[in-house]
Amino acid sequence: MSSSPQPSSPAETTTQESGGGGSAMALLVIASCQLMVVLDITIVNIALPHIQRSLDFSTTSLSWVVNAYTLTFGGLLLLGGRAGDILGRRRVFIFGVLLFVLASLLGGFAQNSGQLLAARALQGVGGAIASPTSLALISTTFREGPERNRAFGVFAAVSAGGGAIGLLAGGMLVEWLNWRWVFFVNVPIGLLIALATPRWIRESERHPGHFDITGALTSTAGMVLLVYGFIRAAQDGWRDPLTLASFAGAVVLLAVFLLVERRSRQPITPLHMFADRNRAGTYGIMLCLAAAIFGMFFFLTLFVQNVLDFSPLATGFAFLPVSAVIAVGAGLASRFLPVYGPKPFMVVGAILSAAGLAWLTLTDVHSTYAGSVLGPILVFSLGMGMEFVSLTLMALSNVRTQETGAASGLLNATQQVGGSLGLSILVTMFGTASRNEAEEQIPRFLSQATPAERLRFERTGQLPPPWSDEVLTAGISAAFVMAAIFTVIAALIALLAIQVRASDLERLKGGTGPGPL
Which pTM was predicted? Predict the structure, then answer.
């Protein structure tokens, strides 16, 4: 499928030409879309127990309410970014938002588990179309230099902090209304975004090309099998036949994907992008950091609800400082990037995030929110705010205009794939540590349990508090150790791989430098 370049109409003036108000409104539209897409990953987490009771999900199948979204979202991001390059980013952006709205409406009205999972998968498709296109629109809407730096800062803060906002929004909606509103809330927001887009965002130039369907299918199927393999390993062990078959299928499909991309004239993932060491390093850092931030939200949500006994709404408020401090870190980075370049913020940000996660490994059943949780998440969030701005800028630096969508899709894909893969690895660590701790806690429980408690344990296999809390915190602590290791790896990549040239600093200041690679 191909199209020829379409020149912009004279009436379609750029936002940079329309003044500060137009730029502000364009950024509001783009950031609102990204927030809607990102927070949907976590807003549903708070509602999961209510969804389980309402639609009769089993405990094992309940995780697919989350996975159905993240897998289609992460798997199709590359195709979504490429679609914007070929068909025009504004029209693709609007289509993705409207598809997301439709899927949200269907999810809110779902009457059984199958309908909800189908709606969640369709939400992922809409998000995969809208999200990389929104990032690419920043590059074509805002002038290079301080203006674009600020726009990237806002976008990065929304991307990194949207998860915390989702937890708060989910807690409010579930507690005050019901679980269906975690889907319905997207409908008016999405419709406003779709209506405002033609007014404030110009259409981009369409570049001739075709869709690399084979590359899209093999990459999506390969990543789905890889993530499923880790999820299966956490539940059934590494020797499970289906686990091994999933990993084998993933290796074959991803190898085919690389072969297809090498031979394709217009690949969905231009492999030459990895020839730039800064961009390749950026993708590696994003993989590691996404694993860490997905893990932090997932396991801390379990800890504050199950051990600290927070309500859904209180849990949302507990994570509210994350978004605020991420915004502070993003603001600092975007302001001083032209002076120091992105590398110092990448290194320092990863070190701060690692320190926060290392601090969280000290939590136990006697921990409190103020004494053991708040401090670490503030340190972690400050580092993440610095990181996401720097990574976003570096990933799109020196990219040809016709490949901005592909580069944006690749950055978003590494974030989602890193989050899904990393979380599955952390869950595996959690499961192993929890089983080991349970072997120690069961004899202690049996020595103190009443006959009724023993009978209940024999029937359910579940330890009651405080023994179950000991098992849970042991597993969470082990997961945070692995998450801290991920962030240390990110710091090492930033230190050894990233190089900032004088021309890069010149472009960040709004001057001229060498053109795209």
Answer: 0.72
Distance CA 498, CA 502 (A): 13
Which residues, in sequence order, are CB contacts of 253 under 8 Å at separation 6+?
218, 219, 221, 222, 225
pLDDT tens per residue, range 281-307: 888 898 888 888 878 877 887 788 778
**Closest by Cα among 59, 175, 51, 60 to 110:** 51
Nearest to 38 by CA among 65, 70, 64: 70
Residues 167 and 316 sit within 8 Å (Cβ to Cβ): yes
Q: In this model, does residue 333 exceed pLDDT 80?
A: yes
Q: What is the pLDDT of residues 108-123, one digit of tens each?
A: 999 888 899 999 989 9
How many DSSP H helices and E strands does the chain contain? Answer: 19, 0
Distance CA 283, CA 415 (A): 8
Q: Is 421 exposed, middle or buried (0-12, 13-18, 19+ CB in 10 A)?
A: buried
Q: Which residue in the block uniquely carries the two structure tokens 């900032």?
A: 500
Contact assessment for residue 344 and residue 498, using Cβ atoms and an 8 Å cutoff: no
CA-based nearest residue to 234, from 428, 423, 425, 419 = 428
487 contacts 349 by C-beta, under 8 angstroms: no
Q: In three state form, how does the secondary structure of 372-438 look? A: HHHHHHHHHHHHHHHHHHHHHHHHHCCCCHHHHHHHHHHHHHHHHHHHHHHHHHHHHHHHHHHHHHH
Query: Average model confidence (pLDDT) for the chain?
Result: 78
Q: In 264-398, which residue ranges form alpha helices assigned H by DSSP? A: 277-302, 312-318, 320-340, 342-360, 374-396
Closest CA to 63 of 117, 107, 26, 27: 117
Structure tokens, 156: 């990065």
Q: Is 469 helix (H, G, I), strand (E, B) or coil?
A: helix
